[in-house]
Amino acid sequence: MPDPAIETRGLTKRFGSLVAVDRLDLAVHRGEVFGFLGPNGAGKTTTIRLLLGFINPTAGSSLVLGRPGADPAARRRIGYLPADLAFDPRYTTSDLIEFFGSLRGGYDRPFTAALLERFALDPYRPIGDLSTGNRRKVGIVQAFMHRPDLYILDEPTSGLDPLLQQEFHRLVREEVARGATVFLSSHVLPEVEALASRVGILRRGRLVTVAAIDDLRRKARQRIDIYTAGPPPRGLFERLPGVRAVSYHDGGVHLVVEGSVDAVIKAAAGLTVERIHTPGQDLEELFLEYYQGGDA
Ligand SMILES: Nc1ncnc2c1ncn2[C@@H]1O[C@H](COP(=O)(O)OP(=O)(O)OP(=O)(O)O)[C@@H](O)[C@H]1O
Fold first, then answer.
1. Does residue 1 lie in a domain region?
2. Fewer CB in 10 Å around end: N or C, the chain?
3. Do 226 and 200 fall into the same domain?
């Protein structure tokens, strides 16, 4: 087994009496997309700043690609997209590309040109003249231009419209297919769900769970509304495996199901079903329980 792409041991950061990151033990495997989720202020950005060596831990340690994050040899192989981009507004994207390119000892020119085109970014406009969304694109280009082994992305699509978010997701998937590792920090569940195979959930600096998205999905409750031609017979769904709540109405039945919905669908097959609606739920509720300290 190669080293993990990211490894932390007891990583801790205090700001005065506040423990922003609390004894974090984490291993992100090579080639995976690891979602790092948590509510605002949970300590995600502080963790990233520790990983990259921008700040020193109060206790514990971390390695990134087998080296301390501040090591230039590690840095060159990392693409970092910060949540708050602060570039000198007088620079153009082209200036920045050359600047970062020289810092990193080169970059992939054809790939970068294709990225500019893909995100419709004019490289010759001063960054100060760009909209928030376009500035975000500059951040993406600088994080991806050297095709690093590890991407550390902090709230990557905030400020991007849905089409660009999709484009960004495609780009991430292509890079993962090439073998890159992605550490994706976000408080937005759908983004993490769309890309990550595993997630770690941080609450008040502590890692409350690390799980495969598929396992969480199996655990998550789903709401299903089945609309039928006539009132459904009472008692049809109550005893089926996974069914946690049933409420009937004239037009059908509302169900809450944990895990597989197979038994419910098979039972419904005996009715005249006009419409099925599954109002989201997905992982959102489960995550909120983790966020709020429930015992999910
Ligand atoms: N330099 C600092 N000095 C003092 N407190 C800090 C500092 N940086 C972060 N904090 C505090 O540490 C805690 C964690 O902040 P952090 O920015 O890491 O959270 P986050 O999970 O990234 O949140 P968000 O999703 O809002 O970006 C917060 O309470 C924050 O106020």
1. no
2. N
3. no
User: pLDDT tens across 19-53, in order?
Assistant: 999 999 999 999 999 999 988 899 999 999 999 99
Average pLDDT, the chain: 91
158 pocket-lining for ligand 1 (C-beta < 6 Å): no
**Whether residues 197 and 230 fall in one domain:** no
Alpha carbons 25 and 220: distance in angstroms, whole number: 25
In this structure, which amino acid lies at residue 202? L
Tell me: the pLDDT tens digits for 84-137? 888 888 999 999 999 999 988 889 999 999 999 999 999 999 999 998 889 999
Q: What is the b/e burial string over 144-161, where b = at least 16 CB atoms within 10 angstroms of the residue's CB?
A: bbbebbbbbbbbbbbbbe
User: Which atom number of ligand 1 is nearest to the Cα of residue 49?
Assistant: 18
From 21, 22, 45, give the residue whose CB has the most ligand 1 atoms within 8 Å, as the site to mutate: 45
CATH number at residue 271: 3.30.70
